[in-house]
Design a protein that fits this description.
single chain; alpha/beta; 4 domains; 5-stranded parallel β-sheet; 28 helices
């Protein structure tokens, strides 16, 4: 028996949004539901319910009782049966074999109310109050030609006779009027209410699903992972673009074929570490939050036709149809962010980075993806949109690597780049592409669900997985420190080792899940070599000092010597160091889109910035400057400047000579003029102490 407090709670739900005085009487659905509750109680409880109804509706007790009496009398239209064990004679499909409802669903009576054409409830989709998503009911009905149609209606429409009749009429329902031309709506809605209440007692008779606004993990506890096609969940795409891509997350093939799909792709990519790892990102994106690895971007940069897209498509085929899931870098940030947020904890593919002319967009995407949140957006009302959560792996392709465009603090540490051709040459890539098309035509979208089910079923091992991931990372850190790979940003390589370890551990899980051989050690060794090889000399500090030396070399007479009355003097050069005003140096770095603090800290660690005795990075420097002495001959004067950076020329030469110079952007004119041969890269003559080509301008 229903408790009185539960009955009151149910009534509150029925009258949610009800405004006193907005209507003279209750809707039939409300009265009918109240009557169902009244049958369970004695006179005392009924009086309490009437009083509660009066309080929330403003309708007098007398009117309420009268309406209840009227509706009670009309119940003779129905032959109500109590819900009990399922009887095949009472199931909907026994009477209407083609009805698209569960075979357990029962009729609440022996037949439909008079004048009503077959119409039933098949599914209820729960709403999300926090996101203003209304509960929806899937109505199915029989057409005049014997076929069946369905539509989703909000709960608020379902209980409103006028709105509900208009809604189902618009989609072709023919049972709104009986043979005498009288409206059936006052019989139709109560019937559907009885149908819902009756079948609520039969598990599975009316399927129920939860509303989800994104794919991937639904909470911070990682309690469940949503993918398109998962039972019990209804995915609501927030926009048209998301809906189009969501339709690409479809399964083609049987779940038991997933191992064959994975095995065929691995065999196709055998002996090619880069495309193999690109394929693995589709699995890795699903376990990053479990093992404690941050989101990141893997970019493969090489010329057209070398197989970059093939690796991307293979990763997408894990979860759906690759042709419908790819996205171009040429899109605006406003298009990229909501899609990335919606397809959370999946691999997110962006093609052709060279077509994105706004490097700030690439920078923002990487930065926000790594920080796992999108940009906040204010509305005209002053309110702020809820920040989107971004999680997963961006798999990017480009003809030229984005890292060369990005100097923003920390961005390059979010970006793992390889610039080798995935399959070595165009011919091999073409042959692999043809073979891949045959595989994906048979299977796509089946490996992802199988893998995530494996992951969720092994929740008890997650703590152990975290430990194994950390152990792998320690091994990568140790191996990297033991190799002589030249100077690189030590913090950045630590980030890369975290990503490499995540991919390595993913390969191990893939072997367990699908009973295949990834050849993990060889694949990851080859891939790590490609990653490390592309990192040499790529730290922001090294790039900045390279560009600054080039700038000084080309502007010696303009900005770094006295004697030029038409140009601002920004510093000067000696055999021991380059002196530069802090404001001038910060202006140069800022224009280059560098984070000034990061670069200066890097230079300090390298010993490039000479420190004063008190440990400060700027110190007093005497420098000759050219001035115009009004009324007399122009002359130079020696001036003491309390704050100047001194950049050690020997330390600069050491760092530049050990850096990989192949990709250094050295100005062609500078190379022909002021640069001479040195170790590893061309060096400005003012950095070579044996040349004597120095302006003695600082004491």
């Amino acid at each position: 028996m229903t408790h009185i407090s539960e009955a009151i709670s149910n009534i509150d739900f029925l009258f949610e949004g009800f405004t006193q005085g907005s209507q003279a009487e209750l809707t039939s659905i409300q009265v009918e539901s109240i009557l169902e509750l009244f049958q369970e109680f004695g006179i005392t409880e009924k009086i309490e319910l009437i009083r509660h109804l009066k309080a929330i509706t403003g309708i007098s007790q007398t009117v309420l009782r009268d309406q209840l009496i009227v509706i009670k009398r009309s119940r003779s239209t129905f032959q109500v049966l109590q819900a009990g064990p399922v009887s095949s004679q009472r199931t909907v499909v026994a009477l209407y074999p083609n009805a698209p409802v569960n075979t357990l669903a029962q009729m609440p009576g022996t037949q439909l109310p008079s004048g009503i054409k077959p119409i039933f409830i098949n599914r209820i989709i729960k709403g999300l109050a926090a996101s203003n998503i209304a509960e929806q009911i899937e109505i199915v009905f029989e057409n005049l030609d014997g076929t069946w149609s369905s539509l989703l209606v909000k709960r608020s429409v379902f209980i409103d006779a006028k709105k509900f009749s208009a809604t189902i009429a618009d989609v072709g329902y023919q049972g709104l009027y009986d043979e005498e031309g009288k409206s059936t709506i006052n019989r139709l809605i109560p019937f559907l209410v009885k149908y819902e209440h009756h079948n609520a007692l039969i598990q599975g008779a009316i399927s129920k699903s939860e509303t989800c606004l994104t794919l991937g993990y639904t909470d911070t506890k990682l309690s469940r992972y949503i993918y398109n096609g998962i039972k019990g969940f209804d995915i609501v795409a927030p926009g048209e673009q998301e809906q189009v891509m969501l339709e690409g997350y479809k399964q083609h093939g049987r779940p038991q074929d997933a191992s064959k799909f994975v095995q065929d792709i691995l065999a196709l990519f055998a002996d090619y570490p880069i495309p193999t790892v690109m394929f693995l990102t589709g699995f890795a994106a699903k376990i990053l939050p479990i093992i404690g690895c941050d989101s990141f971007m893997l970019e493969v940069a090489n010329s057209t036709g070398t197989g970059k897209s093939l690796g991307q498509y293979a990763a997408l085929a894990i979860d759906g149809d690759p042709k419908k899931l790819k996205l171009q870098w040429s899109s605006s940030y406003a298009n990229i962010e909501p899609l990335a947020a919606f397809f959370k904890n999946h691999v997110f593919v962006l093609e052709d980075g060279q077509n994105q002319l706004e490097k700030s967009i690439i920078s923002d995407v990487i930065y926000n993806y790594f920080n796992e949140q999108g940009k906040g957006k204010s509305y005209n009302t002053g309110s702020t949109r809820k920040t989107r959560v971004l999680q997963g792996i961006i798999l990017s392709s480009a003809e030229s690597q984005s890292v060369d465009l990005l100097n923003r603090d920390g961005i390059t540490r979010r970006l793992m780049t390889v610039n080798q051709a995935p399959f070595g040459n165009v011919e091999t890539a073409k042959a692999k592409g043809k073979a891949y098309e045959k595989i994906v035509k048979k299977y796509h979208g089946i490996a992802g669900p199988v893998f995530i089910n494996f992951v969720m079923e092994n929740r008890q091992d997650w703590d152990q997985w975290k430990e194994q991931y950390q152990q792998l990372k320690a091994v990568y850190d140790q191996q990297a420190s033991a190799q002589d790979i030249g100077h690189m940003d030590k913090e950045r390589i630590a980030f890369m080792n975290g990503y490499l370890s995540a991919l390595h551990f993913t390969a191990m899980l893939v072997e367990q899940c699908f009973d295949v051989i990834v050849n993990t050690t060889a694949v990851m060794e080859g891939f790590a070599t490609a990653v490390y090889g592309n990192m040499v000399g790529k730290s922001p500090a090294i790039k900045a000092i390279t560009e600054f030396v080039d700038y000084v070399s080309m502007n010696q007479t303009k900005h770094f010597t006295f004697g030029n009355a038409n140009q601002e003097q920004k510093g000067a050069i000696t055999k021991e160091y380059i002196a530069v005003f802090p404001a001038a140096l910060k202006e140069f770095l800022s224009k280059g889109d560098y984070n000034v603090t990061t670069v200066l800290e890097g230079w300090s660690k390298m010993g490039i910035i000479m420190k004063a005795k008190n440990g400060k990075t700027t110190q007093k420097t005497s420098m000759q400057s050219y001035i115009i002495n009004s009324g007399s001959k122009d002359k130079t004067v020696k001036t003491d400047y309390p704050y100047m950076y001194r950049l050690d020329t020997k330390a600069i030469e050491k760092e530049l000579s050990t850096s990989n110079c192949e990709d250094d952007p050295i100005n062609e004119a500078t190379q022909k003029g002021d640069f001479a041969s040195s170790q590893g890269r061309s060096m400005p003559t003012f950095l070579r102490n044996d040349t004597g080509a120095v302006i003695e301008s600082i004491s």
